[in-house]
């Protein structure tokens, strides 16, 4: 059964974006792209909130076709086109396809169904609102955090409204040349 891993860039003080959704503080480079590409390339399922999905859908399907497309753009575009996508949204309309499922009201049942369809990690990309919803229902199995060397002071927090203690087990750390530190955790007991 697949496990849901929340993949998120986060500031040192725990924010995933600025107060108006700003993400211009996130540091990425080829070293991070290569590292992330290897890990997500092993997966066959991506989970998004509506806003993040719409951003991804606007860029990734055609990214490889751009004249100045980087190797990362080409590789990620190919992966994005092939991967099964699930979108958490109560407002997005459209029919499910063999590559897309829209999850609205039956969150727990639909997530369990998605977990059953794969033995790989299910990457929950960005999507703080979706992450908060899944946290509330204890459906996240791990966190893959990229801690950026910045204090934002305010913004959208990653761990908002935590009602119960959740023990995490550190699986791996890595520091990148740009100053970002990767922390990979699994929820203890899952």
TrEMBL record:
The record places domain Bacterial bifunctional deaminase-reductase C-terminal at: 3-180
Output the InterPro entries linked to this UniProt entry.
DHFR-like_dom_sf (IPR024072), RibDG_C (IPR002734), Riboflavin_Biosynth_HTPR (IPR050765)
Q: Which domain of life is it from?
A: Bacteria
- Organism the protein comes from: Flavobacterium silvaticum
**Per the record, a Pfam family?**
RibD_C
The protein depicted here goes by the name: Dihydrofolate reductase family protein
GO MF annotation terms: 5-amino-6-(5-phosphoribosylamino)uracil reductase activity
Please, one GO biological process term?
riboflavin biosynthetic process
